[in-house]
Design a protein that fits this description.
Helix content: 55-70%
Distance between the termini: 34 Å
Number of strands: 0
CATH class of the largest domain: Mainly Alpha
Number of helices: 23
Mean pLDDT: 84
Number of domains: 3
Order of helices and strands: HHHHHHHHHHHHHHHHHHHHHHH
CATH topology of the largest domain: Tetracycline Repressor, domain 2
Radius of gyration: 24 Å
Low-confidence stretches: 1-7, 260-265, 461-480
Length: 480
């Protein structure tokens, strides 16, 4: 540990380190959080010095990321806050990303252990155990808000490795929830896609509280998470998987025929130069390193002149944001269905959500860019996508006839949808998004009309989502 020679850097790590060095030159000096260890003879052994330095570096990184975000944090800030030398930092971490990921792992390991202990120590029905876990989670956020910001908000900006860490942490939450619904005396097992959506909703609630503390200051976080979790507890769930799987084999064959025959979702070449540039940008982002992309590359991919690119877009970031906006326009057009704000909201919701999932399933390039590649490009893309997801959740729920069971249900719905989409993308099963639309419909309906009524609507053979190919159900492997 510490003084051992680190392995050779990959090309990506070398580039990241070079970028950090360039950023450090312009970064202002900051006051240290910790005093340096005394120079000269002292009683500390080498391993104790290393442990002391690592603890200070982790603390400094948490402080810097909470203040300036992952992208705005530099190695220079971290070492100055930690009171360590640059050499000491690079003896222990390859670069900022490496330090961030190790810090993320330490925080998540600590918090998950505490939540598990609280859950297992509670006795009685599911509500008691779920309450203990939610209270422990809320306490972790209250006690160390800056560490929670790093884990819940900023890890999604830390490239592909950060997204992977977020998925692993969510999977641990899913497993705990799944066991809770399956093993508690008064509980009923839930299908994996619904458990996954519940976990995503919890993440959405926590993210909202961390992102907008002023707007959510009066919200009881533990109570919000508990309400969201328990709304899905119903004896009707016992037959949910069987009822939703009626006719599954035939519908899966139809999905395979519709989406499984070679590449799908490819956009037809457009005569409009702007559209061609946006389509070319999406293709490049999906297969190339965004940091290395240039305007001439984008123009060549779209088969238009560089002059046309420069006329239409200020730079590649402007082009990427416009491409995301183009996808968002298609999705928002789907959820602009007038029946979502009518008296028939309950039955319109599964149909519209099925159409939304069908679009994503049949446009894998666009879905991958939204859920994965664009999040790793930095800049404003992340915020634009987050706003899009929240707007979709708002339009899906604003016409609900009843008041939601909770103040942050829209944020929970956004988290449930987004987490499900990202899991399918990460698992290489984008085409199965259409297959989980019934599960997602239950998740969106339940906080407004109750779980039993939601199940009745979704499993009713007369409901469009229960009989159409686009709304069919598929058992989703837990590894996706």
């Amino acid at each position: 540990m510490g003084s051992a020679r680190r392995p050779s850097l990959t090309a990506g790590e070398e580039r990241a380190t070079a970028e950090e060095a360039a950023a450090d030159k312009s970064a202002p000096r900051v006051a240290p959080l910790y005093k340096r260890l005394p120079h000269g003879p002292h009683r500390l052994q080498r391993n104790e010095v290393v442990l002391n330095q690592r603890a200070r570096i982790h603390g400094a990184l948490i402080e810097a990321v909470a203040h300036d975000g992952y992208e705005g944090t530099s190695v220079k800030q971290v070492i100055e806050l930690a009171g360590v030398s640059r050499r000491s930092f690079y003896e222990q971490f390859a670069n900022k990303e490496d330090c961030f990921l190790v810090t993320f792992d330490l925080i998540v390991k600590r918090d998950l252990q505490q939540i598990r202990r609280a859950y297992l120590a509670a006795e009685g029905p599911l509500e008691h155990r779920a309450r203990a876990a939610c209270e422990r989670f809320a306490k972790a956020i209250e006690e160390d808000r800056k560490a929670s910001i790093l884990v819940v908000l900023e890890a999604q900006r830390a490239g592909a490795a950060g997204l992977l860490r977020v998925r692993r942490a969510a999977r641990a939450c899913e497993q705990m929830l799944g066991r809770g619904f399956a093993e508690s005396p008064d509980a009923t097992p839930l299908p994996v896609p619904i458990v996954r959506a519940i976990a995503g909703g919890l993440q959405g609630i926590a993210a909202s509280v961390l992102r907008d503390p002023c707007d959510t200051g009066d919200v009881d976080l533990a109570e919000e998470m508990l309400r969201w979790t328990l709304v899905f507890q119903t004896p009707a769930a016992e037959s949910l998987a069987e009822r939703m799987a009626t006719g599954l084999t035939a519908r899966m064959r139809e999905i395979s025929a519709a989406y499984g025959c070679g590449p799908h979702g490819a956009e037809a070449p457009s005569r409009d130069e702007r559209t061609r540039l946006l389509q070319g940008m999406l293709r490049l982002v999906a297969r190339e390193d965004y940091c290395t992309l240039t305007a001439p590359q984008i123009a060549d991919e779209a088969n238009v002149s560089i002059d046309a690119f420069c006329t239409l877009f200020a730079d590649k970031n402007h082009c990427l944001l416009a491409a995301i906006d183009m996808i968002g326009g298609e999705l928002l057009a789907i959820v602009a269905d007038p029946e979502l704000i009518s008296e028939d909201w309950g039955r319109a919701l599964p149909r519209v959500l099925g159409e939304l999932m069908r679009y994503l399933a049949s446009h894998p390039l666009q879905t991958r860019v939204l859920a994965q590649e664009a999040l790793c490009t930095g800049g404003d893309a992340f915020e634009q996508i987050a706003d899009l997801v929240h707007t979709i959740a708002t339009r899906l729920t604003e016409g609900a006839p009843n008041q939601a069971h909770g103040a942050l249900v829209t944020e929970a719905v956004a988290g449930a949808l987004w987490h499900t989409i990202r899991c399918q993308v990460a698992g290489g099963r984008i085409e199965l998004l259409a297959a989980v639309s019934d599960h997602l419909s239950c998740v969106v309906l339940a906080p407004f009309i109750g779980a039993e009524a939601a199940i009745e609507i979704v499993t009713d053979e007369r409901a469009p989502s229960a009989t159409s190919v686009d709304g069919c159900v598929s058992p989703v492997p837990q590894s996706t």
